[in-house]
Every structure is written in C-alpha cells, then in structure tokens.
Design goal:
By secondary structure, the protein is of the alpha/beta class. The protein contains 13 helices and twelve strands. The protein binds pyridoxal-5'-phosphate (PLP). InterPro entries: Aminotransferase_I/II_large, AspAT/PAT-like, NHTrfase_class1_PyrdxlP-BS, PyrdxlP-dep_Trfase, PyrdxlP-dep_Trfase_major, PyrdxlP-dep_Trfase_small.
C-alpha cells in the first residue's frame, strides 16, 4: 500500500525546497566552497555562551512562561523603543518563539483563513510560501526586479490585489536579494496596507545587518502601522545564534494572545537556555554584533567587486549577507549555472528560481564565509563564467 496518498493535501501542495538538491550533490563531493547557506560563519560570542553555561549551573532547566521570560521581553521592548521609537507592552504584546520560523508559522496560522490570499514580494525567503500554504492560504508572489533594486512598490502590489487579499508578508533586508527598503518606499506601502485594510507581517530578522548609507526602517514604527503589523525578529543572524532557535513576535494584544494559544499547545515555550543567552545578547552583545557586521561589509565589497569584474551584472546589496548576481549573459538557466558550476568548479550557490519565478536568471551567494574562501570562490566562478559569457 502506498502511504503517500494519505499524506494531507496541504503538505502535498508544498513544493520541495530548490536548495536541498544542491546540498545533496555538494555533500558527495570534496573541496567544495559553499556560498550556499544563509548562516553566519561566526560562533556565538563567548559572553553569550557563558551566560547560558552559568544559567545551567544555577539550575535553570525548567519551562518558562508560555510567552517567554519577562526579562527577555523587557529587553526586546527597551531596544525597539531606543532604536525605532516604537513602544510595546512586554506583558501583552510580545511572544518569545522558537526562532523566527515559529513566529512566522504562528503569525500566518493566526490571521490566515482558508482561501485568503497573502501577497509576498518575490524573490522571497523559501519558507514564506510553504508556511502560507500550510496555514490554508494562497501565497501570491509579487515580482520585483533588478531595475528597481528588488524593492517592492505599490504599483507592483496593486496588480495582484483581489477581494481575497488579507495579508502582506514582507522581509527587508531581503533574503535572497540583499535589498533594503527606503523609509519613503515603506511609507507608500504602509498607506497601501491601510487603504486596503491589510495585516502586515514584517520579517525583520536581518534588521541589524545593513551597510553603507542604508538604514533599517521598522515597519510597525511607521504612522498607523503598529496595530496592523505583526513584527518578527530573532537572534540567528545578528548574534550568530542559528542553532539556539530563538526569536520573537510583537503585535497587538489580540494577535499575541491568539498566537500564544497555538504556541502553548505546540511548543509550550522556547528553550530556557536560549532565552537566558538572548537576554545577555541584548544587554551586552552590541559591540560584538557590530564587529561581525563590519566584517560582513568588508566581504560584501570584495564579492560585489569580484562579480562585477568578471562581467556579471550585480546590484549592490545593502543588507543581510547575500548577493544576487544576474547570470543571464552566460546563456544558462539558474539551475544549469548552479549545477554546472558545482560539478566543474566545486562552488555551491543557490539558483535564483528557488526563491520564486522572478529569481530566474540570478543566483544567490552568501558572503557569510571567510575572505579567503570568498576570494578562492571568486577565482573559480570567474573560470566558469569566462567559458560561458556571451
Ligand atoms: N526569515 C528569513 C528571511 C530567513 O532568512 C531565515 C533563515 O534563514 C528565517 C526567517 C528563519 O530564522 P530563524 O533561525 O530565526 O528561525
């Protein structure tokens, strides 16, 4: 008997990850340089790890409140007020989650009813569409383009608006493009959300990773947006804490109560060890975080110059740790480029179509790896590109 027919339709409806296949090929090979993974190459700073060790020594091994440690919620709220002048109640408007991943899933399951449409600027993080589908909604990709530096505009969104549109899901700084929205651009999006009474889920996990003259604008700090926004953030990228699995959501008390209702039955709470470490990250982690950001910025310049010098069109990413060069002048599709590069030059990157159709013709490279590896990867990519460029 085949069990696959008994798997629920919503799970069957999810497309397999376009990234996995390349990791599987790379795993069989030797001497591969990976620009594929979206994960800091730094170890979590010692003072953060030490706070966790100390917590364990003190016997902090139990569940916390469903919403998370109050002192962590207070630290999150304090920093948002300091950095973005937006004020939340730590007791009613914050939920600590198992990474932004859980917060995203909870937010969507809380506000999406069957058949609701969720607008998602594309190219987008691979989990967005899958989580919308699992929540019973329809993900509607809204293409952005290199001409517009992959920023979303109201004109783009209007083309995809229908009476079923209920939610706008945005993620800036963006994975995979590195795009950062300007405040003016987001103000237009905010007016659009208000005019059409949309709930906005804003994934700001890369908020601390912005470079040059770019500034991160917190969506819920925009006029009239706090009440209709579910703001998501976490520790994975800013503090090199991917394996700790810790993030959070901020929203109006009704949304947070509803999300907590799901969370209390599915997770109970985020791990106490990670919550203790997160308090330390927010209290004393800023200077280490800034050092990591400065190092990403150095690598960003190196990889941007390298890509452009070998003849690939490349928009300057202003945030996150990804670069999204256009490979159309090689005559190869994104998947052909990624697979042939991997097999012939042993460099792993991700084909742009893994992030939606509008990613076709591009590849995503992560520069969360050492300068020496980036330099060697650039040499290898150039070897490959030279043979194909037209
Ligand atoms: N959101 C975006 C845009 C991401 O790129 C990632 C991870 O790559 C996540 C969310 C998941 O983050 P977390 O580790 O906090 O679950």
């Amino acid at each position: 008997m085949s069990w696959s027919k008994r798997i629920s339709p919503s799970v069957n409806a999810i497309a397999p990850s376009g990234i996995r296949r390349f990791f599987d090929i790379a795993a069989e090979m030797e001497d591969v340089i990976s620009l594929g993974v979206g994960e800091p190459d730094f170890i979590t700073p010692w003072h953060i790890r030490e706070s966790c060790v100390y917590g364990l020594e003190q016997g902090y091994t139990a569940y916390t409140a469903n919403r998370g440690l109050l002192e962590l919620r207070e630290e999150i709220v304090r920093l948002l007020l300091r950095d973005h002048q937006v004020s939340y109640d730590p007791k009613k408007e914050v939920l600590i989650t198992v990474g932004v991943s859980e917060a995203l899933d909870l937010a969507l399951r809380t506000v999406v009813s069957p058949g609701d449409e969720v607008l998602i600027p594309e190219p987008c993080y691979v989990s967005y569409k899958a989580c919308v589908t699992l929540a019973g909604g329809n993900p509607i990709g809204v293409p952005t383009s290199i001409e517009n530096e992959f920023r979303i505009t109201v004109e783009d969104l209007e083309k995809h608006l229908t009476p079923k549109t209920k939610v706008l899901l945005i993620g800036y700084p963006n994975n995979p493009t590195g795009a950062v929205m300007t405040k003016e651009g987001l103000l237009e999006i905010a007016k659009f959300a208000e005019a059409h009474d949309l709930i906005v889920i804003s994934d700001e996990i890369y908020s601390n990773l912005v470079y040059g003259d770019a500034v991160h604008t917190c969506f819920s700090a925009l006029p009239n947006m706090q009440d209709r926004t579910i703001l998501l953030n976490g520790f994975s990228k800013s503090y090199a804490m991917t394996g700790w699995r810790i993030g959070y959501a901020l929203a109006n008390p009704e949304f947070i109560s509803a999300m907590t209702k799901i969370h209390q039955y599915t997770m109970l709470c985020a791990p106490i060890t990670a919550q203790i470490a997160a308090v330390e990250a927010l209290r004393h982690g800023e200077s280490n975080m800034k050092k990591m950001v400065a190092e990403y910025d150095r690598r960003r310049h190196l990889i941007l110059d390298g890509m452009r010098n070998m003849g690939l069109e490349c928009f300057e990413p202003k945030g996150a740790f990804y670069i999204f060069p256009c490979i159309k002048n090689t005559g190869l599709s994104s998947e052909e480029f990624a697979e042939q590069l991997l097999r012939s030059e042993r460099v792993a990157l991700v084909p742009g179509n893994a992030f939606g159709e509008s990613g076709e013709g591009f590849v995503r490279c992560s520069y969360a790896t050492s300068v020496s590896k980036i330099s060697e990867a650039l040499n290898r990519i150039e070897n490959f590109v030279k043979k194909h460029i037209r």
